[in-house]
Specification:
three-stranded antiparallel beta sheet
Length: 443
Amino acid sequence: MPPFTKGGTSPIPERTQSAWPAASKTVGSRPRPDANGKTIRTKTARHGSGLRYRARYFAPDGKRKSKSFADGQKRLAEQWLSSISADVARGQYIDPNAARTTFQEFAERWLASQSGDPNTKASMQSQLKLHAFPRIGTRPLGSFQPSHIREFVTQLEASGMSGSYARVIFSNVRAILSAAVEDGCLPRNPCNSRTVTLPEMGARRVVPWSPERVFAVHAALVERFQPMVDVGAGCGLRQGEILGLSVEELDFDNATLHVVQQLKLSLSQPVFAPPKGGKLRDVPLPDPVADALKAHMKLFPPVEIMLPWMRAGGPPVTKRLLFTGPLGGHVWRTSLNEDHWKPALAKVGVIPTAKSRGARRRARTRDARPEALLRLGAAGRRREHQGRQRVPGPLGSGAHAEGLRPPDAEQPRPRTAGSRQGPEAGRLSALRAQRGPRTRKCP
């Protein structure tokens, strides 16, 4: 069978409707019968202009595809058709339409099809949006070369991010391009080229804490949370594993601690989940740590907590947690870090002194006050203010401008020196750790 079949706009003969490629001359002439009844071809108005040859072939999925060529390019069409046929036979066929898909379009579809931990999916989406899409998001998949990936790695290193974080972003891009190769969007993954090197990690040496520092941080915490330092330093548990530690995991007779779960947030919802990386393990339980946990359980009895497993809406699981808040609920990691852990580290000198959440909120209010006063002054030129004036804008509809209160207005009650000091302050911060982060509606 010849590689090309002439037939004008008539359909391809039945014998060409197979896996063998065929092409037809399609535009520029029209068949009609002459005076003797013989079919002849006459030129049309489109003769000699536009695309004249159409090369047709069957893709591996069974769909017939085609590409058109201009007049005088019959040999070029034949060469292209032969190349496509060879790629199909070798299993190296790349769909031209799929190759034109941009990296961002394919990555978004790939992310939508991923299953597993919602936190991992959300983290990958954020990393790609911030660091990959602005640099390579608009590039078509079929145009990727190792040089583009080398340039991308150089840009990541020049951005100032840590080497470990840059490697995480690089691994996400490599996984997406590997999926594109499997879907037939590009022939090979440029990230696997021998000329592409991973982002530099940089020299970093882990220095364990001295016993003096461990004891100092232990003493700086409130009594309810002090055994967390014992478990972390004596057993090597992560923070989520400590917060999810239950009575069932303690084997005092064999001096063993079974690490089988952690307490974490899945899309801002608390859940029980396996340890990071699914690393279930047994660790030795030293006698001092066991004694500290026994004393803690006498002062603060374990509480049964029921939370979903793995993700919000998952099957409920009930555990008797060792570390709970004053109201009997689980401990929120954000509140624990802000109200207890970071202040303790700052007190010992591990980190710089950090402002409390209340101090940061007051600082934001002071920054917003000049703008609010300017808005209030502009409003005062339009109308007369009477009584206690509410300030529009960043301070909210319930805020009031200081210094603009009429003389006969009621003065605020002064705060006593000991209103937020002593044991009361510790109790309030512990309650915040139990209650968890709060959100406030913006006006």
